[in-house]
Write a sequence for this structure.
């Protein structure tokens, strides 16, 4: 495929991963459906996705028990027109692969976004898409690491202290050329994120500026933090 073909804007597809259990939130329902200011986290995430210029297709990957948007837990979630909902798999990589397969084939750029990063601003989505359109195979948003990080061995003994200026805490949405992401998932390997799968194929992955609002809601404290952000506007 030529560079011109890679950069031709045929549409952006977004896979929203919403299949996590949310056990650490202790809410008794999957994380993406835990309410934030009266609406599920997923609803907040999709509101931003719907504003993305060039949006061509959206797939929400939900727990199998909530794969029907008519379920009560979906109250407060507005699906962008044409959104498909599919059931997630046993691992995150399985869920992303299911979402990717359900995207409109006309989308040449694919974003993978965690519903739990429900307050990620539109500007982050736009930066990621622009960088993929500029020719990068993979793009992730990231923020500088503020804590000192130690490498440790199986005994808990420190093996090294990497310099913080070369570290980034990676967020979502992560963006890819569709053909690259499809190839990365073809082998069925597991990885911490989609960028790691793309890196394993030998592609460079660019880091663009993330945003502190794109933090992941995982614990009760994270949810309280999100409530404060929403209250502050």
């Amino acid at each position: 495929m030529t560079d011109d073909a890679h950069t031709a804007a045929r549409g952006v597809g977004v896979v929203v991963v919403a299949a996590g259990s949310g056990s650490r939130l202790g809410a008794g329902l999957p994380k993406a459906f835990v309410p934030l200011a009266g609406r599920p986290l997923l609803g907040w995430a999709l509101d931003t996705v719907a504003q993305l210029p060039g949006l061509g297709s959206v797939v929400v990957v939900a727990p199998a028990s909530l794969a029907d948007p008519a379920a009560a837990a979906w109250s407060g979630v507005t699906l962008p027109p044409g959104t498909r909902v599919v059931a997630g798999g046993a691992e995150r990589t399985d869920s992303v692969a299911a979402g990717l397969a359900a995207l409109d084939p006309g989308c040449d750029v694919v974003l993978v976004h965690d519903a739990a990063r429900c307050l990620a601003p539109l500007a982050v989505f736009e930066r990621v898409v622009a960088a993929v359109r500029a020719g990068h195979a993979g793009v992730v948003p990231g923020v500088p690491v503020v804590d000192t990080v130690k490498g440790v061995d199986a005994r808990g003994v420190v093996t090294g202290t990497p310099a913080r200026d070369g570290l980034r805490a990676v967020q979502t949405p992560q963006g890819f050329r569709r053909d690259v992401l499809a190839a990365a998932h073809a082998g069925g390997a597991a990885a911490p994120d989609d960028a790691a799968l793309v890196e394993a194929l030998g592609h460079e992955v660019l880091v663009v500026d993330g945003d502190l609002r794109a933090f992941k809601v995982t614990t009760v404290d994270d949810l309280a933090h999100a409530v404060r952000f929403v209250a502050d506007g």
Q: What stands out?
A: Residues 44 and 84 are 17 Å apart (CA to CA). The first helix runs from residue 3 to 7.
